[in-house]
Amino acid sequence: MKAVITVTGRDSVGIIAKVATECSLYKANIIDISQSVLSEYFAMIMLVDIHELTIDFSDFSDKLTALGKGCGLDVHVMHEDIFNSMHNI
Amino acid sequence: MVNTKNILETINMIQQENLDIRTITMGISLYDCVSEDEDRLCQKIYDKITTSAEHLVKTGCDIEKKYGIPIVNKRVSVTPVSLVGGAISPDGYIKVARTLDRAAKTLGINFIGGFSALVQKGMTKGAENMISIIPEALAETDFVCSSVNVASTKAGINMDAIKIMGSTIKRAAYLTKDKDSIGCAKLVVFANVPEDNPFMAGAFHGVGESENVINVGVSGPGVVSSAIQRAGDCNLSELADVIKKTAFKITRVGQLVASEAAERLGVPFGIVDLSLAPTPAIGDSVAHILENMGLESCGAHGTTATLAMLNDAVKKGGVMASSHVGGLSGAFIPVSEDAGMIDAVERGALTLEKLEAMTAVCSVGLDMIAIPGDVDESVICGIIADEIAIGVVNTKTTAVRVIPAYGKTVGDSINFGGLLGRAPIMEINRYSPAKFINRGGRIPAPIHSLKN
Q1: What is the least distance, in Å, from the CA of A61 to any CA of chain B?
Q2: Per-residue confidence at B1, pLDDT binned at 50, 70, 90?
Q3: What is the arithmetic mean of pLDDT over B113-126?
Q4: A81 touches chain B (CB under 8 A)
Q5: Which domain does A14 fall in, by range?
Q6: I need a labelling partner for B340 at 20 to 30 A (CA). Which of A14, B79, B130, B398 fits?
Q7: What are the tens digits of pLDDT across the range B140-167?
Q8: Are residues B57 and B170 in the same domain?
Q9: Of B191, B208, B242, which marks where a domain is finished?
Q10: Which tens digit of pLDDT belongs to each residue from B193-221?
Q11: In this structure, what CATH number is given to the domain that contains residue A32?
């Protein structure tokens, strides 16, 4: 089971570190990261393994959204199934 | 890894183009609540609904978080109340309506459907008693939705029932005159009503359904509209392909959510309803899709053809994406709930007659249309009879949800707010069909050979 974390907002120091720390706190293992900065606008997509997640998925999602709000970033956590079912036959 | 382009496309659909799951509706059978005693009946109904759907709202919210997609409504539909109430008194039926409303409030859902009767061929005493107090029931409650099926392709059209519904609609408008006649927004008159429709106000739990069922209605006019815009100046074959592919993706999300909700609630999955359901929000309009397909304004000549193509392509794309498709499945064209339709009416491009023609090729019918409050009952019956005839002859579902807004006339508008939106009062043809309506009886079922 994997989840996709997307982070968008104004670039600042330590965004990846903050998200990664939160992930490690709840044992979400980072598998892949792609990120880009376009004229101070930060966008990151992170794929995490959630097999060993220590809290409920919805709580995990709440934690990351709250983390995002705290630093002015838009953070969304979505289970990978939504992408697989939409884009694969 | 999941393709980045696909991830961004999905996120864009949800955040920019208003992709959402319009409703998760749990169907609940009330057959085991039958009782001669009205209070006992109400108690059993309340207990059954609040127990069966206890976790519906929470489950909906959890799934919403898991997949990051809004699930706008969580709703309940029940067995048509007239089948369960039998010959209880009209007062008893009011008590049932209050009970449904109370159950909806306990559950935290925003609509409960099933204050309904099936009278396509004739009316039982129970149906008669229930229909007689629909206006009072809608005025007294907040969340109860009512529907009456007055015709089917196999049974023909029950004109006696249509006559009763004309006066019922007028009275519902009067009794809720302080709220822009909102009672009428919760009352639908059907032909060939589907028994697994998750959308309100016409949802009920059909007679052939299991004890409980989960039906899901998807949405996404904004997504289709944007896809068409991106496709640019392609020809209609290519455009149909673009719509099909988009409908496939939208429906897959509906299927995913429906399966997950069914599993979590321990209830069988019923159907996904493929409807394109607009909301008054900007960028969530079916009329704008038609305009993006090439019309100067929705309502222009060519609208029916455009809508026919859209509706067909949505179904073709959606059918493959879901294991079971049902309900209304087609494009909805309500006026008050669609910003583009409202604009088209206000600029004089869209008339009631054009809307009627459009309903011959798409889902549902004359929906959320405000007409002057002083219109004669028989004219409303005529509007219903015309629309119902389209459904009966073409073997499809049609319906009428008109609002004869009490005290209002052309130039005024009504505003319900929220999903129900606002509607300008539309001019209608006032020549009288009274003599035809007053004949009563039934229009026989249509022949299904010698087609022309």
Answers
A1: 7
A2: low
A3: 96
A4: yes
A5: 2-87
A6: B398
A7: 999 999 999 999 999 999 999 999 999 9
A8: yes
A9: B191
A10: 999 999 999 999 999 999 999 999 988 89
A11: 3.30.70.260
Domain closes at, from B157, B191, B225: B191
| CA distance to partner chain A, nearest, from residue B108 (Å) | 20
Domain identity same for B162 and B307? no
Q: For residue B373, what is the domain's CATH number?
A: 3.20.70.20
Instruction: Tell me the C-alpha distance between A86 and B163, whole Å.
Output: 47
Across the interface, of A4, A31, A86, the residue whose CB is closest to B253 is A86
A85 touches chain B (CB under 8 A): yes
Q: What is the pLDDT of residue B282?
A: 82
Assigned domain for B229 exists? yes
CA distance A43 to chain B (A): 11
What's the number of domains chain B is made of? 2
The 10s digit of each residue's pLDDT in B223-240 is 999 999 999 999 999 999
Number of domains forming the structure of chain A? 1
When scoring A31, A44, A87 by the number of chain B Cβ atoms within 10 A, the one with the most, hence best to mutate, is: A87
Which chain A residues touch B261 with a CB distance below 8 Å?
none
As for the ipTM of the complex, it is 0.86
